[in-house]
């Protein structure tokens, strides 16, 4: 509501005008209608494993998560977003970006999540994880390789979600290692 009041535009239109068009993210959109449940084609069926039951997902209503999760995108567009946010610095001011990726030690253990940025595990850089029924995504920018890494799955195991995320983080780590090896 704050963005809409200040900009005079619906949130989805603001995002489109300020971020999607300038960054050439042509395959990203923000569903607004509760009836907007189908993914744009081409898309794949995703699967949710819960209570030892495997359920196919072809429809989902993400409008309940306005401004924090009602984004439908592709891995390429997500990589474009990450690169422009963290490397090209076209999204936030330098100070806001520094604040977002700063590690804050509260005296016990470092915070791993600040201003919407996941900082752990540190070896794979910083970015964001996301999950919806039957989808899991990891997006990271790794400053050492100056690259973005996106791993996504169209399968979500409710009981094994933490292990699934750890496996996906390992894929990112292996990819980083291969890039480093190739650049030697």
UniProtKB/TrEMBL annotation:
Gene3D superfamilies the UniProt entry points to? DD-peptidase/beta-lactamase superfamily (3.40.710.10)
State one Pfam family annotation: Beta-lactamase
Please report the stretch or stretches of sequence annotated as the Beta-lactamase-related domain: 1-155
Q: Which PANTHER family match?
A: BETA-LACTAMASE-RELATED DOMAIN-CONTAINING PROTEIN, D-ALANYL-D-ALANINE-CARBOXYPEPTIDASE/ENDOPEPTIDASE AMPH
Q: What is this protein called?
A: Beta-lactamase-related domain-containing protein
Species assigned in the record: Mucilaginibacter hurinus
Lineage, broadest ranks: Bacteria, Pseudomonadati, Bacteroidota, Sphingobacteriia, Sphingobacteriales
């Amino acid at each position: 509501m704050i963005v809409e009041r200040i900009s005079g535009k619906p949130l989805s239109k603001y995002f489109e005008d300020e971020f999607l068009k300038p960054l050439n993210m042509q395959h990203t959109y923000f569903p607004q209608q509760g009836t907007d449940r189908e993914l744009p084609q081409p898309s794949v069926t995703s699967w949710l494993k819960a209570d030892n039951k495997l359920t196919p997902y072809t429809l989902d209503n993400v409008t309940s998560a306005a401004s924090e999760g009602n984004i439908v995108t592709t891995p390429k567009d997500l990589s474009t977003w990450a690169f422009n946010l963290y490397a090209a610095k076209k999204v936030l001011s330098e100070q806001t970006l520094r604040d977002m990726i700063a590690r804050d030690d509260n005296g016990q253990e470092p915070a791993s999540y600040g201003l919407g940025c996941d900082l752990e595990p540190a070896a794979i850089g910083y970015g964001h994880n996301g999950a919806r029924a039957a989808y899991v995504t990891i997006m990271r920018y790794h400053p050492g390789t100056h690259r973005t890494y996106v791993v996504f799955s169209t399968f979500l195991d409710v009981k094994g979600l933490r292990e699934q995320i750890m496996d996906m983080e390992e894929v990112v780590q292996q990819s980083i290692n291969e890039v480093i090896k190739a650049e030697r």
